[in-house]
Amino acid sequence: MTTIVEATSLKKTYMLGKIPVEALRGVNLKIESDDFLAILGPSGSGKSTLLNLIGALDKPTGGKLSIEGIDLSSLNDNQLADIRRRIGFVFQFFNLIPRFTARANVELAMSIADVSRAERRKQAEELLETVGLKGRMGHKPAELSGGEQQRVAIARALANNPRFLLMDEPTGNIDSKTANEIMHLVKRLNEEKGVTIIMVTHDQQLARETKRTVQMFDGVIAKEIVN
Amino acid sequence: MKTRDVFAYSFSAIKLRKLRAGLTTLGVVIGIAAIVALLSITQGLQIAITRQLQTGFATDTLIVSTGGGFGGAFGQGALGGATSSGFTLVVNDTEIINNITDVDTSTAIIQRTGQIKSGTIVQDVTIVGVDFAEYQNIYSSTFVPENGGSIPSNPENDRVVIGSRINDPQENGTSLFTVNSTVDIIWLNATGFPIVRNETYIGNVTAILPEIGGFGVGGPSDYSIYIPISQAQSFFGTDECNVIVVKLTDDEEATIDSVSAATKETFKNQVSVTSAVAVLNTLSSVFSIIQLFLAGIAAISLLVAGIGIMNIMIVSLMERTREIGILKALGTKSRTVLLIFLNESAIIGLIGAVIGIATGWGLANVVALAFRGGGLFMGNQAVASAGMTITPVLTATVLLGALGFGVGVSVIFALYPAWRASKLKPVEALRYE
Ligand SMILES: Nc1ncnc2c1ncn2[C@@H]1O[C@H](COP(=O)(O)OP(=O)(O)O)[C@@H](O)[C@H]1O
Ligand SMILES: [Mg+2]
Hints:
The complex is a heterodimer. By secondary structure, chain A is of the alpha/beta class. Chain A folds into 2 domains: 1-86 and 166-227, P-loop containing nucleotide triphosphate hydrolases (Rossmann fold), CATH 3.40.50.300; 92-162, no CATH class. In chain A, 33% of the residues lie in helices and 30% in strands. Chain A has 7 helices and 10 strands. In chain A, strands 6-7-8-3-9-10 form a 6-stranded mixed β-sheet, with helices on both faces. In chain A, strands 2-1-4-5 form a 4-stranded antiparallel β-sheet, with helices on one face. Chain A starts with a strand and ends with a strand. Helices cover 53% and strands 16% of the residues of chain B. Chain B has a 6-stranded mixed β-barrel with strand order 2-3-7-4-6-5. Chain B has 2 domains: 3-53 and 281-430, no CATH class; 61-249, no CATH class. Chain B has helices at residues 3-16, 18-56, 70-73, 93-98, 132-138, 164-167, 229-236, 253-266, 276-319, 321-329, 334-374, 381-385, 396-423, 426-431; strands at 61-65, 103-118, 121-130, 159-162, 182-189, 197-208, 224-228, 243-248, 272-275. In chain B, strand 2 (103-118) and strand 3 form a beta hairpin. Chains A and B meet through helix 2 and helix 3 of A and helix 1, helix 10, helix 11 and helix 14 of B. Bound molecules: adenosine-5'-diphosphate and magnesium ion (MG). Adenosine-5'-diphosphate binds at residues 14, 16, 21, 23, 41, 43-49 of chain A.
């Protein structure tokens, strides 16, 4: 097992005009390969902020964050973009490109990483098959249900063989039956394909399916449970 | 992202908003079409006029006149005459001019507007008095007899040489004259104003000129009849000539300059000397200015289109903030986002420029056709009936320039919106509603 993500005293303070908002007040977290971590916590406790930092989408205002041993604070914008290519991000609101088909959305992630046309078509089809959308590849997001859109998003997140998947309330916008199916898929990815997963949720039920759960409260990790 | 993928991505964004992209493109189309139409028409016009002038010119000649240079030297009904100081050129001044170095020969021209009558047909013509021998020596390719006539060196006074359009005014191949036909030559003598008299004599046709075309400067014209200089002196009752045509030993610029200067000095700067080459040069520089001016006006419309592009790109940037966030979250570099936006604008510019060039070219041809129909541009019957046609010209410079300008303006006006798009922070862009 290798350490993939390591956060030490990680801080993030937003400025709301002149008022500082301390979203993270010193988070310590270590994630190993093959891990399946759930981050639980009430709304506003800093879960998304933490995930955005780990996903290199935002920069911390204090503490240290390394991914695969690389200190993110030492990287410039171009290098951060390169890191993002190797991280799979799944959002609550899917964030698919509406004018692209399911396949084109998955291919886009690979085209950004300069994968050849033939190769990305082949991989996109394989990935969509993995998430159970074999027959929906030519559909645009508007022609897909919420659950299906999230599956496309998961396929896209897996596109460039990411070091790990970051999921911010992936089932937050989906009915509970579909949410269970998605959860099943995610679990399978972790168990069968060895994909490391960090998932934010506020559903205790779903969190119990993971290997490990941390509880966030007011910008810090309040407690850790190994399932 | 590979270039080809950037292009495909940009194109998909344009395709999504066809109407908007279409209207933005239209702005570029109008600007480019205006530039191309104006430039190709003026270039065509310049070539047409230059060609017309060249037919009537000999490059190794100078025109000496007392009038205002080019205008005074102009073939039909030239002004000439006295300067304000009362200086006049007289027929015998050719002897002085012939003594100037590098002058081969010279000949005086006296001309008046008048009429000729043959049978019942009366035509307005320019009556030109010249030394037949010298004139033929200078204009050896145009002042020549056609079909059996002859231009005698020592003509009797009643001999006349007739321009081709006077012989065939309808331009339908019928001839009003043959060699040895007689013709009434009429000149309205207003020298004794207020007493005005019709002077007249009967001429005898000795030659008919071939069709020359163009409006000659000093040289033979299709609309003139030529009478011996001595006859002109007595008929018009004057020794004053309108112009003296000088033939040089060669058409080198140095020769033209030195003889021009020497001639002016000889006549104490009271004459103006016009060279065919100088006229053509002046004409072409005038045309350059006109072209620049017209293209400048058209370019302004393109700038307006550029502002339209900028406006659209800013709107598009706001609409697509989330999309930019997604691209960045997937690892797209700022530089690539910039390229995507610039590319969208460049595509619009390119399509607009291509359609604009085609439209402008079409427009130029329509205008040229209308011109052919009736001398629309110059309102000048002579120009139209002289068979002057404009063929619009699209040079490679104009073509590539229009393409480059269309794309360039589009890209420049997209720089700011594209730069802003590229600078968006991923989290903030993703949160944007
Ligand atoms: N861009 C921002 N500007 C100001 N405050 C923010 C911003 N993003 C988040 N916050 C604040 O930071 C805190 C943590 O937010 P977040 O990480 O989104 O919580 P969670 O995902 O756990 O609901 C909240 O108080 C929120 O209002
Ligand atoms: Mg959140």
